[in-house]
Amino acid sequence: MEAVETIRQYYLNTRKETPTGFDLHKANTSHFNILESESCLNTFPFMRRDYYKICLVDNALTYQYDGQKIEIEGPCIVFSNPNIPYGMERKYLCNKRKGYICLFNEGYLTGEIKAALIKLNALYARDIFPYIMLTNEEYELFSLYFKNLYDEYRGNFEFRKEIITNLLRVVIYLAIKTQMNHYPEIHFTEQKDRLVTGFIKLLDRQFPVDSPNSILELKTPADFADNLNVHVNHLNHALKTNTGKSTSQLIQERVLTESLALIQYSDWSISEVGQSLGFEYPAHFSQFIKKHTGFSPKYFKKSS
Fold first, then answer.
1. Neighbours of 142 (CB within 10 A)
2. Domain boundary at 182, 213, 242, which?
3. How far apart are CA 15 and CA 148, in angstroms?
4. 208 and 288 share one domain
5. How confident is the model at residue 189 (pLDDT cuts 50, 70, 90)?
């Protein structure tokens, strides 16, 4: 089985402080954190991670990806996601300037953030790793946004999550703009981009489920394809090209995220959660949860 580092293991391996309210022994459905990065471990072993990571660093780095090594020297912003196994070695213990590490998992993603990440990844369809070299001025501009993210995350404003998600989108779109300014010949395949964005909007629009009596309207790849007026194979190809995942995988991931959230944080019964998410029989819902997590729904209900 392929080695995968979880976000819990990241905190343990790096000995970074675990965020308040984040239980290392509990299945969390949503997680975000941003850390200042003045120093870090010299190496991260080659493997897949189950979380997204954005690093703003001013250092010399060596990334290992797909049998190749990428040498990065100087200020840059690096994006990694659960689809990309990688290893990293930092040549100097400290950044020349303060940097930041932003971590979040699939459960934290809104449709808008996922759409922005897909646009970013589309820039790298023929490249080997999503990193952007920065000028000193660009680095300072990104630093301002990361500093705002850092401050908002540690604040107590009632709507801080809304501010954080919007700032995160700005960072991603600013990265897209920066890369396109560096390489004006880059362009998007607009038809596929609209199709992928349309799928994500349809998927995200169905969540969160607000009542046990609500039933998902779109459950299968064919349902989404019909709504988007395309053949299901065309939709699957567009999603696979842009995200590395099939239509079914993306639907199942979103349903799983919502399932665990409702099991742990609502007062609905397990059968009500399953029914609201399109499972006709409780046994089928239990099998779905166990297949993707290794545990039964009752395990997550007890841990809530």
1. 23
2. 182
3. 24
4. yes
5. low
